[in-house]
Each structure stands twice: as C-alpha cells, then as structure tokens.
Amino acid sequence: MTTAHNEPAPLDPQDWDAYRALAHRMLDESIDYLRDVRERPTWRPMPAEVRAALSNEPLPRAGRGDAAVYEDFLHLVRPYPNGNIHPRFWGWVMGTGTPQAAMADFLSSVMNPNVGGLEQSPVLVEKQVVKWCAELMGFPPTAGGILVSGGTMANVLSLAVARQRAAGFDVRTEGLQGTHPKLLVYASTEVHGWLKKACEFLGLGNTAFRRVPVHADFTVDVDAMAAMIRDDRAAGHRPFCIIGTAGTVQTGATDDLVALADLAAREQCWYHVDGAFGAMAALSPETAGQVRGMDRADSLAFDLHKWGYLPFDVAVVLTREDAALTDTFSMQAAYLASESRGIIAQTGIHFADRGIELTRSFKALKVWMQFRASGTDTLGAHIARNVQQAHALARAVEAHPALELVAPAPLNIVNFRYVPVAEPGTPQPDAAALDALNREILIQLQERGIAVPSGTTIHGRFAIRVAITNHRSRAEDFDALVEAVVAIGGELGGGMPTRA
Fold it and tell me: Which of 293, 167, 190 is nearest to 241 (CA)?
C-alpha cells in the first residue's frame, strides 16, 4: 500500500484555479491563432535552433510544469506547421479544420471514452454519424459503417471485406495458403497508392493488383478492365473486386462509376469505390452528378478530414449490408460477451466487431457537432465553391500566355506550369530545364510563404498541382497565386537552355 509521504505527484492539477486560468489562456490564444491565420505566411522553414531543440531534447524525467511547457509550445511548435489551415494551402489533399470541430476534439478528450462498444452515449453518437453518412451517399438503411483514422485504413478495411465476401471460400478460416485460385483486384493506374499497400498487407501480393489503363481524361478504361477480367478467368484465376475512384489524387478524375457497377454485377465481383475526397461531391446538387453510380457500390471509403473540412483524423467505411462488416471482423471473446443488463448490455462491442481496432477514440463527436452546428447543406455549398474556384483557376491559366494547363480539371484539382513566352522564331525551352524551372517556382512559392501547392509529373512534365479542399480560400487567393507564379517565373526564367 502506498503511504502519503511517497505518493507520486498527481497528474490532475493541484491548483485547479491556476490551471483554469492557464487553460483559458490556451483557448483564447488558440482562437486568436485561427482568427488571424490569413495574416501569417502560409508556411515557413524551421530555424536550425528550433529543429535542434525538437530533435535532441533529453528524456524529461522530471517535469517542468504546465505553464512552462505551454511556453515551449508557443515558441517551438505552433509557429512551424505545414500550413494546411491557411487559406492558400492547396498542397496534396488536406483538410483545413474548423473551430467548432477543434472544440469537439477537446470535449472528446475530456470525456476520453473508448468507443469500441459498451452501453454509452458515444457509441450511439457514432451510430448516428454512420447513419447520416450512409444517407448522404445514397446507401440503403441496411448499410453498416465505422469511423477510422483515414482513407488508407478505410480502403484497406473495405478490401478485407471484399476478400472475405467474394473470394469464394472462407478467408478467415483458411487464409490464403491453400490451393484456391489466385484472387485478383482491378483498378486504374491512377488509383491511390493505398491499393498496392493493401494487397501486400492482406496477403494478396502486389501481383494481385491488376492495373488497368486510363483514357486521356485519366478515367479508367472499362472495356480494357472487362477484357482483363475475361483473360484472367480463362487463365484459372478468380477476379473478386473491382475498384472505382471518385476523384483521383493526381487530377481529380472520376471513373465511370455506373459502368463499373454494371461490370461488377455482370462479373459477380465486389464493387468498391475509393471516394477519399471525391465522394464528398455528393453533398452538393451542383457536384453530385460527378459521382453518379457511387451509391451502387458494395463498399465505399471516404475522408471527412479532407473535403469535409474537419480536423484530422476521421474517415468512413460504409458497406451496403452491415453483415458484410461483422462477417469479416466480429470476434467472440468470453471477456467481451454481451449481457442483458449493465455496461456491456445491448451494444456489446458494436464497433470492435466492425473493424480491427478494439481501442477507438471518440472521432464521431466532431462530426456530430459540426453536422448539427453548420448543416450538411452548408458543407455542400463550400464543396461546390471549391469546384468553382478550381474551374476559375483553370480558365485563368488557359487565358495567360505564360501558363499551361497540364491536365483536365473536372473537379477540384488544377495542374499547370509556367512556360516562358518565346519570341516568334526562337527555340522552345529545353524540357528538362522547364521542369527544373517549375520545381523552383513551386519551392519559392512555399519558402516565401506565398502559397503551398504541391508538385507532380503528368505525361513526363512537371506540374504545379493545386488541390482545393479549403473552406477559407477566396478568389483573391487564386489571383495572388497566378500573379506569383508568373512573377517568380519571370525572375528565374531568363537564360533558360533552349532546344534548337
């Protein structure tokens, strides 16, 4: 038994009033930080002394106190994020967060429930959120779902469900070490990298991923996919899953989801849609047509921390039938058996039976509060505005003599580059030098704190990639981007190597 004279210091505050004052300061300064985000550079590099302080600190065996650590946070951590909450952050596909949802994360941490199951309100909140998400995506009332960390995990769980339901044998019992035909999954060459990881992680192997060519608009060639499936069946293999993408990560292209649904039905394959960010187009009448056919999927994965504007991390797995999840993931452990009464009554381990995690945070609270506070129609209006902004940026690029649109911009991603205007009769810039020039423009946009796009290579050409999932962006932000690209390109472009 521990005696009073050698008890450890409590982890709760010893002076609650002093801690309340510090907490109020944290809250007030955090609200100011969000309010004034537009006044700061989009991004800035960490000084060497900050990097050293964050990398080389000895293990803190003795504590310094809450106030001192908060001061360290203000000096070392908060000034140097990647910038994704800034109005001019368009790098990769990252969410911007909202003040309301940030507070919900605080409230969730204060409650600190484990939402694997049990008879508790957080489980009912997540059930409600899943039901709302299913309704938004046009899934039937029989649908099941679960919230997870991100699109990769959501897609991996979905592929595990597809493997169990469509393999033709009980994968949970037999595994993949028997004499069954090779299981194959089909998706376009533009599908996100999660699929390669998933095939390897789930024991299917990288060769199980059949990469289907795309059209000029970067959508999958459905006829080519059908031919590959026929050939693979003839070779004795077992096609089990077809994957469509709603919003490819590189160009924002959306596959013909209706045609893929028809193909999956004909071939008796599981039909999964990776809607990591593009699925959210369903929230607006202006953009919902771009994801037509998504509601026919057997499973769907999408992020709410991307185009749902919520803080990291929260993503959704949906299946048309709830049984598809429980058939794949449920377990019957004696120490988790449901009772007729008490804390493990009724709900049992509801969500732990629908995924691989038993320990789960209360991710649903920020979704529940944001949906109810702003309404999903408001979120849809912001999504529609982001698409309008992308189309306006693409038009501005096409209209400018020193800019070139590198790929179509059907949704919310614009790929373009700077091309110096050459005098008539003069040679065109060397291709490698032009790529290097645009890489430097991109880096200088970031290092000067002007904006944060990302970069990619399309058809062998380097492009500045603007992915717009930002509810804080305004028209003038994109005007400033165009002006800055042209100005920096002009500064750097003189004396570029040319091609005779």
Answer: 167
Return the CA Rg of the chain: 25
DSSP state of 150: S
Whether residue 313 has a cis bond before it, omega within 30° of 0? yes
Question: Can you tell me the mean pLDDT for 52-74?
Answer: 96
State which residues form the domain around 83.
13-93
Share of the chain above pLDDT 70, in %: 94
Task: Give me the mean pLDDT over the 451-463 stretch.
Answer: 97
340 shares its domain with 364:
yes
99 lies in a domain?
Answer: no
Which pLDDT score, from 0 to 100, does residue 89 have?
A: 97
318 and 212 inside one domain = yes
Q: Please answer whether residues 151 and 301 qualify as being in contact, where contact means their C-beta atoms are separated by less than 8 angstroms.
A: yes
- DSSP-derived secondary structure for 25-85: HHHHHHHHHHHTGGGS-S--PPPHHHHHHHHSPPP--S---HHHHHHHIIIIITT-S--TT
Two structure tokens written together for 147: 């919230």
Q: Check whether 458 has a pLDDT greater than 70.
A: yes
Residue length of the chain: 500
Q: How many domains does the chain have?
A: 3
Could you tell me the pTM of the whole model? 0.93
Residues 224 and 367 in one domain: yes
- Domain end call among 93, 123, 153: 93
Q: Do residues 381 and 406 lie in contact, with contact meaning Cβ atoms separated by under 8 Å?
A: no
Q: Give the type of residue at 94.
A: M
Spatial distance between the Cα atoms of 396 and 398, rounded to a whole number of angstroms: 5
CATH number, domain of 261, equals: 3.40.640.10
Quote the distance between the C-alpha of residue 477 and its chain's center. 23
Instruction: Specify the amino acid at residue 482.
Output: V
